[in-house]
Design brief:
By secondary structure, the chain is mainly alpha-helical. It has six helices and three strands. It has helices at residues 5-9, 11-19, 22-33, 38-45, 49-61, 83-115; strands at 36-37, 65-69, 77-81. The chain has a three-stranded antiparallel sheet with strand order 1-3-2. β2 (65-69) and β3 (77-81) form a beta hairpin. It is elongated, with a radius of gyration of 19 Å. 17% of the residues are buried. Residues 1-9 have low confidence and may be disordered.
């Protein structure tokens, strides 16, 4: 799989950029439940086939979804989530959470020290 230059250089930024669009978040929400064909996704979200194709290309380029062949119909593509990119995002968010926790703990310590 070939990722865009942005996804290779700044994976978290590319992930946020891809998820900034409500239609792409809708695709992610639907794929969380089960893998689906592009046509199903377009119908569920009320999008045209070309619009869905553009959204899926962006999601594939950023590594959030992948395309696979349907076991019953080799001509049909099935889209599913790729957990690796979400794990990277979770790791980044955990780092940010740790930073805020440390900052809040330091502030609490400072405030309690001044109160005495």
């Amino acid at each position: 799989m070939v990722l865009s230059a942005v996804a290779r250089v700044m994976p978290v930024e590319a992930t946020f950029s891809a998820l900034a669009d409500p239609s792409r978040r809708g695709v992610i929400d639907l794929l969380r439940r089960k893998p689906r064909r592009a046509g199903e996704l377009a119908t569920e979200l009320g999008l045209t086939a070309p619009a869905m194709s553009r959204h899926l290309r962006i999601l594939r380029d950023t590594g959030l979804v992948e395309r696979a062949f349907d076991d019953d119909d080799a001509r049909a593509n099935i889209y599913r989530l790729r957990p690796e990119r979400f794990a990277e995002l979770r790791s980044w968010l955990d780092d940010v959470d740790r930073l805020w926790s440390l900052q809040l703990d330091a502030f609490k310590h400072h405030a309690e020290k001044r109160r005495r």
